[in-house]
Design a protein that fits this description.
0% of the residues lie in helices and 55% in strands. The protein has one domain (5-85). It is mostly beta strands.
């Protein structure tokens, strides 16, 4: 039996952490909706898994989203601003027209 762990983060503010959301386990995932990730070293750290982000603000982080072998699926309604680096280790997969 395979157990998977998924975090659903909605309408939250996450700030001043090394990793705001540390999503690195292959059997995990993060869904971030309508949230603010501000002033973290890394807003969302995505390892060998998938993060889904929609309607969220990622600002003032050193790196907003760090892709370390994982995938970030995004809606077209996220705001990136004031980060040193918006995305590292790859590119976002936009789900705008689905």
């Amino acid at each position: 039996m395979l157990f998977r762990s998924f975090a659903v983060i909605r309408d939250s503010t996450i700030s001043r952490f090394q990793n705001g959301i540390n999503n690195t386990n292959a059997n995990s995932g993060a869904r971030v909706f309508g949230s603010t990730l501000f002033s973290n070293a890394t807003g969302i750290n995505v390892g060998a898994t998938t993060a889904q982000v929609a309607g969220s603000h990622l600002s003032g982080n050193s790196t907003a989203i760090a892709l370390a072998g994982g995938t970030a699926l995004t809606g077209c309604d996220n705001f990136f601003g004031g980060n040193t680096t918006d995305v590292s280790g790859g590119g976002l997969t936009n789900q705008c027209n689905k």
